[in-house]
């Protein structure tokens, strides 16, 4: 048996590993290679330039701003989204008041309806969501400022996306709005698998809702929360943040670089300025940030797994 | 289970073995790096170019009568019909040639790989959001010199060269450094201040020629609850459409040239300062529509078309772009920017007009003469009229408006060009240094100033800093006015 084992393992792994290498690892290797060249992306001629692109990147104010914003996206958006999703799914599944004759543990009234409503944004593509919110944030005739005017707050008419102090928050809020529903459903599924006896025991001991959440629900849901965190962080570093910033913001990336993120900067350098090599350099930096994020989350999140 | 492996004494692949083997795999992959360069540079020079055809009066560019010709058009605001019509003429003239025409909005995604492989089409309308950077294409010798086309006899009149049938500035715009002409801008855009004649008439006002008159008109409008100005707040690089020609009018065209040439302290010229202060005055006195910094171009154009604001800095495409919101009795007009006062260096009427829709013939095209011949056909009076009639825009062909029914905006554009005469300025920042013009000067400089977050002095200092940075940046190619 022993001598056939390699062939056996290789036989199973060859195809997936091959695909992974071809479509994931190979492009990484290529971009790292290109980051040492002066490739424009528009012509087949280029030369090696050593670490020039990296030196330039470290000296580039816009790069540092985009890095800062990307890190903020990766930390804040998952925190708010998951926090909100945990709260909402707890209320939907566990947080309800006990009703006569009903089960001991239940959600708030109308929770089935809420669950569907929260999931709605997930059905829309992020591009459509971004466009809709761009209209809503229109300071002249958008929904938000019209509402403010409608309730008599004529003096409070923020510029939203036109204000460097607000723009980044506006964009993040859209990302939270559009993704929270997915996690509500994910966490609801997780909570449904927590045995009811644990809740009943906690209730018998007189635990408050607050205590139940932190002492029972959260620890038992930890694995789901952790993978949700990584998933959300990668979304916030990558495609989703690009879409909302590119579609919604001034410039895009503005006003005054207040919303630029690394993915947007990669795109602009590669496809607007014809500096593909420099773009891949920023891409390599983005790769490092993403890896670091995943590593940090995995390490911080390491806990004893609870069996139940 | 079978026999145990003698070396490591464990079942199957030992951990140490695994590490050793993956290290070996890593070593193999290193030489593979050498092949990487092949990814970006497939194809190469092995592609056959079509041989020359017979040079005749009808075929001055000696196009190979049977060589296929491929034409890729940007499918934007001007549509594709005008180009399809021109391709039909090509087919009639060269019945033996196969033509391939395609229109796309994704110029870059479609064509970038083909440039990298060395197999680009013969004629490209390199336009739209996915425009390929012209400076890079020129710098990397990817474009063909269009001088043979410009020196060829024109389609309608063999005694006139093509270059003599074009509007002012078209040939210069196609040059980057030196005499060679890389780009032919087919559409002709008039930039300036767009307004409704009807709205101005209802205020008993005429288009203001000086800034004091401008402020007076805005004050009148404000009393009626109408804002003086609005602009694409999210894309503040629309402001230069009226601001730059104003700077040219106040300080002379050489101030604009110095700015384009990224000369030190170009932005500190008194004319720049005066014009910045004039525009800032619009903000300070509350003449800019509230919320403007948060509007995109469509939203600002819509607010303006609804009569919420009088003036809008824009280009002649606005008539087509906002056609569905501009009321029928709007009486759209464009004017050259107001000046400061009588001390201005250039007369009222000084206008920014320049080419749009850049057409290029790739250096590695298989049938470059065919691409140029297609352009020569498009620059005929008939094709030009066809374009103007269909898409409400002028072309690079000087004339071609007789007998075509012009819309109000286009009529006033033609009148503005006539008034300007030779006083046409042509600032080049937007095609030479896109990033500098759009996100640095536009968004971070002018946008911030017009939102009231920078004073004119601060804006100038910031913009001069950006320009100095760009002048020093070795990763962008630098250009100078000839």
Automatic annotation (TrEMBL), chain A:
How does the record say this protein sits in the membrane? Multi-pass membrane protein
Top-rank taxon of the source lineage equals Bacteria
InterPro entries linked: ABC_transporter_permease, MetI-like, MetI-like_sf
Keyword match DNA-binding: no
Q: What Pfam families is this protein classified in?
A: BPD_transp_1
Query: Where is the protein found, in the record's own terms?
Result: Cell membrane
Specify the ABC transmembrane type-1 domain's residue ranges. 67-297
Keywords associated with the record: Cell membrane, Membrane, Transmembrane, Transmembrane helix, Transport
Indicate yes or no for the key word Transport.
Answer: yes
Spell out the coiled coil positions from the record: none
Q: What are the BP-aspect GO terms?
A: transmembrane transport
The record's GO CC annotations read: plasma membrane
Check the record and name the PROSITE patterns matching this protein: ABC_TM1
Residue intervals passing through the bilayer: 7-29, 67-95, 116-137, 166-187, 229-248, 276-298
**Similarity comment: family membership:** Belongs to the binding-protein-dependent transport system permease family.
What is this protein identified as? Answer: Sugar ABC transporter permease
Biological source species? Streptomyces tagetis
User: Which lineage do the record's taxonomy fields give for this organism?
Assistant: Bacteria, Bacillati, Actinomycetota, Actinomycetes, Kitasatosporales
UniProtKB/TrEMBL annotation, chain B:
- Going by the entry's taxonomy, the superkingdom of the source organism is recorded as Bacteria
- InterPro entries per the UniProt record, alphabetical: Bact_solute-bd_prot1, Chitin_NgcE, SBP, TAT_signal
Question: Where does this protein reside within or beyond the cell?
Answer: Cell envelope
Q: Which Pfam families match?
A: SBP_bac_1 (PF01547)
SUPFAM superfamilies documented for this protein: Periplasmic binding protein-like II
So where does this one cross the membrane? none
Please name the PROSITE patterns in this protein's record: TAT
* Protein family membership: Belongs to the bacterial solute-binding protein 1 family.
Q: Sorted alphabetically, which PANTHER family does this protein's record hold? A: ARABINOSE-BINDING PROTEIN-RELATED, SN-GLYCEROL-3-PHOSPHATE-BINDING PERIPLASMIC PROTEIN UGPB
Name it.
N-acetylglucosamine/diacetylchitobiose ABC transporter substrate-binding protein
């Amino acid at each position: 048996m022993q001598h056939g084992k390699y062939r056996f393992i290789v036989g199973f792994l060859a195809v997936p590993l091959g695909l992974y290498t071809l479509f994931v690892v190979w492009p990484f290797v290529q971009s790292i290679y290109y980051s040492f060249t002066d490739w424009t992306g528009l012509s087949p001629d280029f030369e090696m330039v050593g670490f020039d692109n990296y030196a330039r990147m470290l000296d580039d104010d816009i790069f540092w701003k985009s890095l800062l914003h990307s890190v903020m996206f990766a930390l804040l958006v998952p925190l708010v989204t998951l926090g909100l999703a945990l709260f909402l799914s707890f209320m939907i599944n566990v947080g309800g008041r006990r009703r006569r004759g009903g089960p001991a543990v239940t959600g708030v009234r109308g929770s089935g309806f809420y669950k569907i409503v929260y999931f709605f944004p997930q059905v829309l593509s992020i591009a459509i969501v971004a466009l809709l919110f761009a209209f809503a944030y229109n300071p002249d005739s958008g929904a938000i400022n019209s509402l403010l005017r409608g309730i008599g707050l004529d003096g409070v008419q923020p510029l939203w996306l036109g204000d460097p102090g607000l723009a980044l928050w506006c964009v993040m809020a859209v990302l939270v709005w559009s993704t929270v529903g997915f996690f509500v459903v994910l966490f609801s599924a997780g909570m449904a698998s927590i045995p009811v006896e644990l809740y009943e025991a906690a209730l018998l001991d007189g635990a408050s809702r607050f205590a139940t959440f932190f002492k029972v629900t959260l620890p038992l849901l930890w694995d789901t929360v952790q993978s949700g965190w990584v998933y959300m962080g990668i979304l916030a570093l990558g495609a989703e943040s690009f879409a909302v910033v590119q579609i919604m913001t001034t410039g895009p990336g503005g006003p005054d670089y207040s919303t630029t993120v690394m993915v947007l900067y990669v795109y602009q350098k590669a496809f607007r300025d014809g500096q593909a090599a420099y773009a891949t350099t920023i891409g390599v930096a983005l790769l490092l940030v993403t890896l670091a994020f995943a590593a940090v989350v995995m390490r911080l999140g390491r806990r004893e797994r609870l069996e139940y | 289970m079978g026999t145990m492996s003698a070396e490591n004494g464990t079942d199957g692949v030992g951990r140490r073995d695994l590490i050793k083997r993956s290290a070996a795999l890593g070593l193999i992959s290193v030489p593979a790096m050498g092949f990487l360069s092949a990814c970006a540079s497939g194809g190469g020079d092995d592609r056959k170019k079509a041989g020359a055809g017979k040079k005749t009066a009808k075929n001055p560019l000696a196009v190979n009568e049977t060589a296929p010709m491929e034409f890729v058009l940007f499918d934007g605001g001007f549509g594709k019909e005008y180009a399809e019509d021109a391709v039909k003429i090509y087919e009639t003239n060269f019945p033996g040639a196969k033509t391939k025409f395609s229109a796309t909005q994704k110029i870059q995604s479609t064509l970038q790989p083909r440039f990298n492989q060395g197999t680009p089409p013969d004629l490209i309308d390199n336009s739209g959001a996915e425009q390929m950077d012209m400076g890079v294409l020129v710098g990397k010798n990817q474009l063909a010199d269009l001088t043979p086309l410009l020196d060829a006899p024109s389609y309608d009149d063999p005694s006139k060269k093509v270059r003599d049938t074009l509007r002012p500035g078209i040939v210069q715009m196609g040059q980057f450094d030196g005499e060679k002409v890389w780009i032919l801008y087919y559409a002709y855009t008039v930039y300036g201040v767009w307004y409704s004649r009807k709205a101005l008439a209802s205020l008993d006002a005429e288009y203001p020629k000086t800034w004091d008159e401008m402020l007076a008109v805005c004050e009148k409008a404000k009393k009626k609850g109408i804002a003086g100005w609005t602009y694409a707040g999210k894309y503040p690089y629309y402001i230069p459409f009226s601001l730059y020609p104003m700077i040219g009018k106040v300080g002379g065209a050489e101030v604009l040239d110095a700015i384009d040439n990224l000369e030190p302290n170009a932005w500190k010229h008194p004319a720049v300062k005066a014009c910045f202060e004039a525009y800032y005055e619009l903000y300070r006195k509350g003449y800019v529509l509230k919320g403007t910094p948060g509007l995109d171009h469509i939203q600002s154009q819509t607010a303006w078309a609804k009569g919420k604001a009088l003036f809008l800095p824009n280009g002649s495409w606005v008539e087509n772009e906002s056609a569905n919101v501009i009321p029928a009795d709007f009486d759209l007009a464009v004017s050259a920017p107001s000046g400061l006062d009588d001390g201005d260096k250039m007369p009222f009427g000084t206008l920014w007009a320049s080419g749009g829709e850049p057409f290029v013939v790739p250096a590695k095209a298989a049938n470059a003469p065919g691409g140029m011949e297609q352009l020569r056909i498009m620059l005929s009076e008939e094709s030009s009229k066809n374009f103007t009639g269909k898409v409400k825009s002028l072309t690079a062909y000087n004339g071609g408006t007789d007998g075509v029914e012009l819309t109000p905006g286009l009529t006033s554009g033609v009148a503005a060009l006539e008034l300007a005469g030779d006083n046409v300025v042509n600032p080049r920042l937007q095609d030479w240094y896109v990033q500098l013009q759009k996100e640095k000067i536009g968004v971070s400089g002018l946008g911030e100033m017009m939102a009231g977050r920078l004073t004119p002095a601060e804006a100038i200092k910031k913009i001069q800093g950006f320009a100095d940075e760009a002048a020093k940046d070795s990763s962008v190619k630098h250009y100078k006015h000839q």
